[in-house]
Automatic annotation (TrEMBL):
Biological-process GO terms, alphabetical: DNA-templated transcription
Record key words, sorted: DNA-binding, Transcription, Transcription regulation
UniProt similarity note: Belongs to the LysR transcriptional regulatory family.
Segments forming domain HTH lysR-type: 5-62
A molecular-function term among this protein's GO annotations: DNA-binding transcription factor activity
Highest taxon of the lineage: Bacteria
Protein name: Glycine cleavage system transcriptional activator
Length: 309
């Protein structure tokens, strides 16, 4: 059976020895000067040695006190390390990220394993929403949104340019004429309730504001509109970073090239007072690297088509 010294007394000694002052030790421990003195005396009695030389105006450690301080400090350091390890095992570091649904499904999740290999200690919890970020009413640490500028009262970090253009299945371009905007009169235009760039705005930008398509399809979410375009049901106005993989694979195409494209920026927003500041910074650094890689893929593809985006 271990014969342990009185642990409160050991703690009082360690603080007093570190400061070489009972008064400063009392302030750190939030007790009285007399309480520290009594605890140290109790430890000295238990050990059978003097740990301090006490003079009216000076307190110094004895040789035994210096040696005991070195050992005790090392024990406390190991205790802190062991405790932190157990706490981290019991409660993983969590980063709560909120992002738009289609962005999350088609871009973020596909790349998230790269971040998790870099930070295996972090558990990323994803939720989806399209509403403006509200860190007071919601429990997430970061909100990713497509925006035209940084948000007020947020730490907004840009990480990727969103280029929005009409896309369709390659079969549509091969079976029906689709060389100029006027050709859309023979096609189906797919829209969705949350689209950041409406067909009416694009048609006006390319000089055919009154064009009437052969048909229209409407969905609630971008994801369904994107899927409909992938299945050859018509043309949808979507961000190219969501379509680039299927474009490079030869399944989707951008029939009008850079004509009438619109740009926004994707930002990672966090509260300026967030306790997870270091963690959100690491996540933002990773987002910026992934965003640059995606933009480079789009730029290289556009250059191969002879376009400048």
């Amino acid at each position: 059976m271990r014969k342990l010294p009185p642990l409160n007394a050991v703690r009082a000694f360690e603080v007093a020895a570190r400061h070489v002052s009972f008064t400063k030790a009392a302030a750190e421990l939030n007790v009285t000067h007399g309480a520290v003195s009594r605890q140290v005396a109790l430890l000295e009695e238990w050990l059978g040695v003097s740990l301090f030389h006490r003079a009216p105006s000076q307190l110094t450690l004895t040789e035994a006190g210096r040696g005991y301080l070195n050992e005790v400090s090392a024990v406390f350091d190991r205790l802190v390390t062991a405790s932190m390890y157990v706490m981290q095992q019991a409660a993983p570091i969590v980063l709560r990220v909120n992002a738009p649904p289609t962005f999350t499904m088609r871009w973020l999740i596909a790349r998230l394993s790269v971040f998790q290999r870099k930070r295996p200690d972090v558990e990323v919890r994803l939720t989806t929403s399209l509403t403006p970020p509200n860190f007071q009413e919601n429990s997430y640490d970061m909100a990713i949104r497509g925006q035209y500028g940084p948000l007020d009262d947020c730490r907004s970090i840009p990480f990727m340019t969103e280029i929005i253009a009409p896309v369709c299945h390659v079969d549509l371009r091969e079976t029906l004429r689709l060389d100029r905007p006027q050709d859309l009169e023979a096609h189906t235009l797919i829209s969705y309730a949350t689209e950041p760039y409406e067909w009416s705005a694009w048609l006006e930008a390319v000089g055919v504001p009154g064009l009437k398509p052969a048909n229209t399809l409407s969905f609630e979410q971008m994801y369904f509109a994107f899927q409909a375009a992938s299945e050859g049901l018509g043309l949808a106005m979507v961000p190219l970073f969501l379509a680039i993989d299927e474009i490079l694979a030869g399944r989707l195409c951008v029939p009008f090239g850079p004509l009438g494209v619109q740009r926004r920026t994707y930002y990672a927003n966090s509260a300026p007072t967030s306790k997870a500041h270091t963690l959100t910074s690491d996540f933002c650094d990773w987002l910026q690297r992934e965003g640059r890689d995606t933009e480079q893929s789009i730029t290289a593809w556009a250059a191969s088509e002879g376009w400048t985006l």
